[in-house]
Design goal:
The complex is a heterodimer. By secondary structure, chain A is an all-alpha fold. Helix content of chain A is 73%, strand content 0%. Chain B is α/β, with parallel strands linked by helices. Helices cover 39% and strands 26% of the residues of chain B. The chains are: A mainly alpha, B alpha/beta.
Chain lengths: 267, 262
């Protein structure tokens, strides 16, 4: 366990050193979040009753989404992992007494956490001072807040295990390009990164809610502002745990399969 | 002890001729060729031996090293290293071996070399005392004291290679696989690396298996050579066995390749 922990530490420390990138990210996320809030404001002005969430809940959703972007953005994948598979440097990782799956997990969690830690606080603080209903509201209750934190962590874990599945699949496809393109666009759409899931038509939504993508950011962000019922919260968190287990099992299984038939590219 | 018996490994390689028309044709019908990288390879290496593994490009040297270090799974045959099957118990196996791939890097690019070493210490669960001793010894022998605090990306090839070798030896492996460790090194670094490998073998009784195209490496390091060509072991003996007259070692080996038509 200690080896994964020290690897985690190294990656975390490395992630913290990119300050300029973090600053640029914060600015981008403010601009993006602001734009979205203004867009929704225009919609709500037309007919507020037509929307499944209140404007202030939607604004909270957007700001939290921006603050924790690094937790859930599947497009932020570890290029070094893909590179090591494509150019064969994976050979060295296989020469170490570690499971590559766990190693990659430690690495992904570390870099996502480092990115989020650098970026979330300025966004959260500023968004808290934006006047209602355009800023981030207080959580619905203390219980909601605690459940939000739990679901946030589970969501991060689901996102990471999903990315790990893509890394492992890259062993089979030689080039990761196609995989990345297909999966990142799927995730963006189905996870509620483009439009929050409650805004989809009911029939489609009932299916979307069950997919692993809904267990990424959707659950946590909706719990915060209570735009999801108590029974539903229980079910959604259960679903997060379910997908976490399934994705981990699938990833580990595929990884073992890949290790057996590995070909080291580039001699 | 390392034994390989009747080991075969083949790769499937897509082939096509040059040109646009051929590329279009390959869209519908792709030709594959099966390359037998290893074809019934058998040998035994005893503890503390230093063996040079030579052969022309594409002969199967690296494939052998990768099978022995647990990265590749052979198609058939049995491999035993100190009683372990490398590709079945990869994690247990790699704890006991050290590997250097001359053309790749295992150091983390952005952090000082010493941080990479510290991480390896945790990865191999090396105790503090052992780590300090190994590090001191390696630093002195490979002359690393100036390099440890710089990031790996800012080292020259030779400097980096010395650090790579140290990184592979921190956990005191009983077997060391070196895949072209002197590639691209200047004369001074080459001599330092050779000298170091020799001492490692003498003082720690480390078994060393070395692949290289640099025949001076072979001449100064190994008493036994294995010649592989087209996936088969063609010769297992000492340098003196193959040397005729006063020819240089390069000429001797070139002639050897010619006799075996590889």
């Amino acid at each position: 366990m200690k080896k994964y922990l020290s690897f985690f530490q190294l990656r975390f420390a490395m992630g913290l050193q990119y300050r300029t990138a973090a600053l640029a990210g914060i600015i981008t996320q403010f601009a993006w979040g602001g734009m979205q809030v203004m867009m929704y404001r225009a919609f709500y002005h037309t007919d507020a009753a037509a929307f499944p969430m209140t404007l202030s809940a939607t604004a909270s959703y957007i700001w939290l989404q921006q603050a924790f972007l690094a937790f859930f953005a599947v497009w932020m994948m570890e290029n070094e992992i893909f590179d090591s598979i494509v150019n064969g440097n994976i050979a060295y990782e296989l020469c170490r007494p570690v499971s590559i799956y766990n190693m990659w997990a430690a690495r992904s969690i570390a870099s996502r956490l480092a990115r989020a830690v650098l970026r979330c606080f300025p966004i959260l603080i500023v968004a808290a001072f934006i006047p209602q209903p355009y800023g981030i509201g207080t959580p619905a209750s203390l219980l909601h807040f605690l459940l939000f934190v739990l679901s946030l962590i589970l969501g991060l874990a689901v996102t990471v295990t999903f990315c790990l599945l893509i890394y492992v699949l890259a062993f089979f496809t030689i080039s990761p390009q196609g995989l990345r393109m297909v999966f990142t666009s799927c995730v963006e759409f189905f996870s509620g990164a483009v439009i929050p899931l409650p805004f989809f038509p009911d029939k489609i939504r009932s299916i979307m809610d069950l997919l692993p993508f809904a267990s990424m950011q959707n659950t946590a962000l909706r719990i915060y502002s209570a735009s999801i019922g108590t029974d539903e919260i229980r079910r959604a968190i259960g679903l997060q745990v379910f997908w976490l287990v399934v994705l981990t099992a699938a990833g580990k299984l595929l990884c073992r399969l890949a290790e057996k038939r590995i070909i080291v590219q580039g001699g | 002890m390392i034994t390989m018996e009747h080991v075969c490994k083949s790769y499937r390689i897509a082939k096509r001729n040059a040109g646009f028309a051929e590329a279009c044709k390959a869209l519908f019908h792709r030709e594959h060729e099966i390359i037998h990288a290893l074809n019934d390879v058998s040998f035994t290496i005893h503890d503390g031996e230093m063996v040079g593994y030579i052969g022309p490009n594409g002969a199967g040297k690296s494939s052998t090293i990768k099978i022995l270090s647990g990265i590749l799974t052979p198609d058939s045959g049995t491999v035993l290293v100190d009683g372990r099957v490398p590709y079945k118990n990869r994690i247990d196996h790699v704890r006991e071996i050290g590997v250097v791939f001359g053309q790749r890097s295992q150091l983390w690019w952005d952090v000082p070399v010493i941080d990479s070493f510290a991480l390896l210490k945790d990865i191999y669960s090396i105790s503090d005392i052992c780590y300090r001793q190994s590090l001191e010894e390696l630093t002195e022998l490979l002359n690393l004291s100036e390099l440890l605090r710089s990031p790996a990306r800012q080292l020259s090839l030779g400097q980096r290679m010395r650090c790579e070798i140290a990184a592979s030896l921190l956990h005191r492996p009983r077997i060391l696989f070196l895949d072209e460790p002197t590639i691209g090194l200047d004369a001074v670094s080459k001599l330092a690396v050779r000298d170091f490998i020799l001492r490692q073998n003498q003082t720690h009784k480390t078994t060393v298996i070395l692949t290289t195209h640099d025949m001076q490496d072979i001449e100064s390091l190994t008493s036994r050579i294995l010649l592989i060509g087209k996936g088969q072991i063609l010769l297992d003996g000492s340098l003196d066995d193959i040397r005729t007259g006063n020819k240089s070692i390069d000429a001797t080996v070139a002639e050897l390749y010619r006799t075996y038509n590889i």
